[in-house]
Amino acid sequence: MTNPAFSHSVDLSPPASHFRAWFGCAAGCGGGELPLNQVIYYCPACGGLLEVQHDLAALRSRSAEEWKLLFDDRHRRTMYPYGSGVWGKKEMVCPAVADHNVVSMYEGGTNLFWAERLGKQIGLEDLWVKQCGNSHTGSFKDLGMTVLVSMVKQMIAEVTRIPAVACASTGDTSAALAAYCAAAGIPAIVILPRNRVSTAQLIQPMANGALTLSLDTDFDGCMRVVRELCTRENIYLANSMNSLRLEGQKTISIEIVQQFDWEVPDVVIVPGGNLGNISAIGRGFLLMRDLGMIDRLPRLVCAQAERANPLYRSFLTGFSSYQPIQAQETLASAIQIGDPVSIDRAIKVLKAFDSVVEQATEEELADAVALADRTGLFNCPHTGVALAVLFKLLERGQIKSPERVVVISTAHGLKFTDFKRRYHEGKLPDMAARYANQPVELPADYDKARDAIFRVLEK
Fold first, then answer.
1. Counting CB atoms within 10 angstroms of each CB, which of 25, 408, 419, 453 has the fewest?
2. Angle between the 381-396 and 362-373 helix axes, to the nearest 10 degrees?
3. CA distances for 451 relative to 128, 438, 455, angstroms
4. Are 23 and 33 in contact, with CB atoms under 8 Å apart?
């Protein structure tokens, strides 16, 4: 169904019945195919997490070149909902949702920023930052939430009883859920850890009318509450253990390759907390390879904060063992997670790639943010984790100067102005803040202002 406010001369929407997707066991236990409009999160056979699986034979009915042409034709156009960076790839994301039930805010299509000046400073010839935070609610979470809320809208239209949609969040998930539910007219419940999200992140779900619960616990404690709530009350779960979210997020991979005229970068670096995004991005590359759209995979790097690093610890054992931890307070608050829901998915994906998991200290991530900001970026602390890991791998020679590297920026820096202010004021504990830049306070006097300016310019 085409929104009458939009038009396009070419019909870019295929017959919906030709493509098919379902929930299947992520561990591959053979638990069968479950419809996407069923309220279910775990495999009924083995109890593991589910993943969305696609009919590859149907997808292969179009050639790789035909898919590329179709996606290029739809990109940022005005036929609803195919101009969205997610819904322009609907057949590979969620073909089961009718167009008139799609809840889209024109998500995706974000800037792939050529970080030329930063790259030259660190000795990297071809550095890019994928600005996923340049989205409606200021984070990559919009990409997954559009799929999940659209499916909920479809289920409600099919007379499935869903009283509300709920999530536990460190900030960005709650903002995306609240906004998309507000657009769809569906009640939203967000559960946040008290005093552990930024003011900007807290105000977003409040402004969009979500019922906001602030619990005296960390993210993992909020996650335990929301799981029980959704199990007992038939409230729909919106966290990334629901793999509908990952289907939207995997379009990051497709979009990056599309923006490089269908060439694969050498390295992709992704901040990792609950590990849904690294899983989704890996799945996107694997799907393109399986469909012949790309002929190689990039090296995949997951970057964790040192104070919340269970995947990094598992990587040091060759993924032979894994133990959840009690995450410590970190400036990268959105990835302050010690028991990630998508740990098995992430390990499975990383094993399919030439992959690395590395960590960054608080000082490393804060300095990385400030250094990159000085070259025109405006990064969140989680992107700082990825940048700090890039600096380490480049220094060690694990990334080479001529390689094309893409860093995934997960959220807009404007959500974290207090972190930036404290850094530049020298108020973050236990760090030198090497790139701090404070205003010079002067009386309203021309000579004093001129002297201050030229003291800097003449250095």
1. 453
2. 100
3. 38, 17, 6
4. yes
Only one residue has tokens 């970080």, namely 115
Return the number of other C-beta atoms located less than 10 Å from residue 68's C-beta: 18
Assign 456 to helix, strand or coil: helix
Rounded Cα distance, 241 and 120, in Å: 39
Return the closest-CA partner of residue 136 out of 127, 145, 128. 145
- Partners of 302 in beta bridges: 270, 357
Cα–Cα distance for residue pair 417/402, rounded to 1 Å: 34
Beta strands in 122-202 (DSSP E): 126-131, 165-168, 188-193
CA 51 – CA 67 distance, rounded (Å): 23
Residue 234 tokens read as 């038939």
Q: Cα–Cα distances in Å, from 431 out to 15, 103, 375, 434, 436?
A: 57, 44, 21, 8, 11
Q: Return the beta strands (E) in 55-202 as ranges.
A: 112-114, 126-131, 165-168, 188-193
Rg (CA), the chain: 22
Backbone angles phi, psi at 262, to 5 degrees: 70, 25
pLDDT of the residue at 275: 96
Q: Extract the residue ranges of the chain whose pLDDT is less than 70.
A: 1-17
Give CATH for domain 112-137+245-424. Answer: 3.40.50.1100
Q: Any idea which residue has 């289907």 for tokens? A: 247
pLDDT on residue 241:
86
CA distance 105 to 330: 31
In the block, residue with structure tokens 């799609």: 102
Contact between 154 and 97 (Cβ < 8 Å): yes
pLDDT at position 434 is: 96
CB 246 within 8 A of CB 276: yes
The alpha carbon of 203 is separated from its chain's Cα centroid by a whole number of angstroms, namely: 20
In this structure, what token pair is assigned to residue 212? Answer: 């906001």
Domain-wise residue ranges, the chain: 112-137+245-424
How many CA atoms lie less than 13 Å away from 56 in the CB half-sphere? 9
Task: Count CA atoms within 13 Å of residue 231 on its CB side.
Answer: 8
pLDDT at position 12: 52
Residue type, 355: S
Residue the block writes with tokens 């109890």: 47
- Structural element, H or E, at residue 52: strand 50-54
Q: Helix, strand or coil for residue 34?
A: strand
